[in-house]
């Protein structure tokens, strides 16, 4: 009962409150897809992923598990955001410094430790592959169109490669938004201008929702799963980005959580599995897993920042 109250009432209500903020005059230019807004959305998304895995492990075939089968597609937003931020960051560099880039990535993704888990982590493996394609795109090409074409080719090549080698569907069904994020970094202003028309905005949103409903239904019910969930994931991410054009997501709680999404992604299943083995009340498992995951995530994130700062100071 408590689990359902948190997962099916408290969290959805909190998300709706966070979304219920139309842009005020002058806010859009300063807020849309800026760090505060995207970090807040990341916080919302990672909690859906948390509830998705919790319900799969602790409460399969329940209403909560059915409701959070959308958790897997939420990863598409993180790939979209990675494509966007990576391309944007590269475009601001006069010259691509691979050593500096990969040292920064190693610190942020904890690669000295996590690299050993790359064969078991769909998100990390995909992210590293797309980083390589993006780096190569900026080294080999000068024009944005050429770079985007190369990144898009790499994105689809990796997608097909995973299917050919027989990788599980959750390895490939949520990765096709990386190149869209890169494209958004290039054409963001044009996209914003296009959707200033409420008619165009409404038509596109309706079209995406029409695509999302059947693909989501089939995906959630495991029918034509690979195709359905891939389409649903891709379309769902675009719907989220469109909603962010009209709604200024605001929540101190989700923003705080959004700062630690990578760590939460790494640790949450470990705690859920651990507590589920020794505790037989799902509500207690949920609360302990959430608190432990967030606590360790904050400690690791802030600890690594402190270590990195100390290392950099010693180099001077």
Structure report:
The chain has 316 residues and is mainly alpha-helical. The protein has one domain (2-315). It has helices spanning 2-19, 28-31, 35-58, 63-67, 75-91, 98-109, 111-114, 122-140, 144-164, 169-172, 178-194, 198-220, 225-246, 252-258, 261-278, 282-315. The termini are far apart.
Helices and strands in order:
Elements lengths: L1 H18 L8 H4 L3 H24 L4 H5 L7 H17 L6 H12 L1 H4 L7 H19 L3 H21 L4 H4 L5 H17 L3 H23 L4 H22 L5 H7 L2 H18 L3 H34 L1
InterPro entries: Acyl_transf_3_dom
Protein name: Acyltransferase family protein
Pfam families: Acyl_transf_3
Give the uncertain stretches in residue-range form: none
Tell me roughly what share of residues is in helical segments: over 70%
Q: What is the N-to-C succession of helices and strands?
A: HHHHHHHHHHHHHHHH
Figure out the total of helices.
Answer: 16
* Number of strand segments: 0
Radius of gyration, taken over Cα atoms and rounded to an integer in Å: 20 Å
How far apart the termini lie comes to 56 Å
Fraction of residues in β-strands = under 5%
């Amino acid at each position: 009962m408590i689990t359902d109250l948190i997962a099916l009432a408290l969290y959805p209500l909190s998300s709706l409150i966070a979304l219920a903020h139309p842009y005020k005059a002058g806010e859009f230019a300063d807020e849309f897809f800026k760090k505060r807004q995207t970090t807040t959305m990341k916080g919302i998304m990672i909690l859906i992923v948390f509830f998705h895995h919790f319900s799969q492990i602790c409460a399969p075939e329940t209403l909560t598990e059915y409701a959070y089968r959308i958790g897997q597609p939420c990863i598409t937003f993180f790939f979209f955001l990675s494509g966007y931020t990576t391309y944007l960051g590269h475009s601001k560099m006069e010259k691509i410094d691979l050593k500096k880039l990969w040292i920064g990535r190693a610190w942020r993704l904890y690669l000295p430790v996590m690299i050993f888990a790359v064969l078991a982590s769909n998100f990390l493996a995909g992210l590293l592959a797309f980083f390589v394609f993006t780096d190569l795109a900026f080294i080999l090409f000068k024009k944005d169109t050429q770079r985007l074409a190369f990144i898009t080719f790499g994105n689809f090549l990796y997608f097909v490669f995973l299917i050919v080698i027989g990788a599980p569907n959750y390895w490939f069904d949520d990765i096709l938004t990386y190149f869209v994020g890169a494209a958004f970094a290039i054409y963001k202003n044009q996209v914003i201008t296009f959707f200033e028309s409420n008619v165009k905005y409404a038509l596109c949103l309706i079209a995406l929702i029409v695509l999302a409903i059947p693909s989501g239904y089939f995906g959630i019910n495991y029918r034509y799963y690979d195709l359905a969930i891939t389409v649903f994931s891709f379309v769902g991410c675009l719907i989220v980005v469109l909603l962010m054009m009209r709604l200024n997501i605001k929540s101190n709680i989700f923003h705080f959580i959004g700062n630690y999404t990578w760590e939460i992604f790494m640790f949450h299943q470990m705690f859920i599995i651990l507590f589920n083995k020794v505790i037989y009340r799902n509500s207690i498992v949920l609360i302990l897993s959430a608190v432990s995951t967030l606590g360790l995530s904050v400690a690791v994130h802030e600890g690594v920042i402190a270590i990195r700062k100390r290392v950099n100071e010693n180099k001077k």
